[in-house]
Amino acid sequence: MYDLVALPSAGLRAAMRNPSDALLCADVSGLRSIIDDPGRHLRVSVAIVDYDMPEMDGLEFCRAIRDLPVKKILLSGKAGLEVAVDAFNDGLIDCFLQKQDQNATQALRSAIQRLQRLYFDDVSRPISNALELCGTTWFSDPAARDLIQHTVDHLGMAEYCLSTTPPGVAMRDDAGNETFMLISDRRELDAQIAAADARGAPDELINQLSSGKSQSWFPTPDGRYSADYYSRWQAHTWPADDLHGNTHWMHSLIPVGSALILDDMRKIA
């Protein structure tokens, strides 16, 4: 199982508002290539190290990779328990397990999942901070993060990737099937309604958006309605549920079609 938060490095660019003000922005122009690149799975997030190894013991190995961001689990026997506790307290390892424990296998699985999440939180933090400058604050809202993690766990997703255009999370299961969670706030919904009204959208679309029970995203430069979708707006509009966190969010789970959303946005990026 992979537990991944990824962003295309090529999609981060500096946009200068003025000579003294640089703003990082993100798009999904490279997200599809990132998702489909099997080489990204070669990155090690958690190292499982046995204390009893020939030539070099587990702690020596952990010291050798101390400067790497990888999380470390030390497997120890009874004789190495005190040493493992000291190593944990010193920050040399992130977790230790006793090999003779009857529940060692399940404990190891749980530790790997927990440390994978911590690892990706660590490596994603600079990106999430940059995204907050762009107004993508849902990524740092605990309520939204809890919802995303619950959805990933409930649906058995193998990985998920953050997207800013469209705003939300692209998820993929072990079989490669994709689901997209579209996330927006009331300001974005109001902008969707205003654009639909100004661009002559069908009354039914405007009424659905105005009800606060649906949201849209169109493959247009601003993600909002255009006349090209007058007869096809239903394909880009989904039921939405409320989420109350730092602000009032709306989220729609799109089981089929996330690939279309991302591919459409890649074409116009």
TrEMBL record:
InterPro entries recorded: CheY-like_superfamily, Sig_transdc_resp-reg_receiver
Short name of any one Pfam family annotated for the protein: Response_reg
Q: Where is the Response regulatory domain?
A: 1-114
Gene Ontology biological-process annotations:
phosphorelay signal transduction system
Which controlled-vocabulary keywords does the entry list?
Phosphoprotein
Q: Can the keyword Cell inner membrane be found in this entry's annotation? A: no
Domain of life, source organism: Bacteria
Query: Positions modified as 4-aspartylphosphate?
Result: 50
Name under which the protein is recorded:
CheY-like receiver protein
- Name its species: Hyphomicrobium sulfonivorans
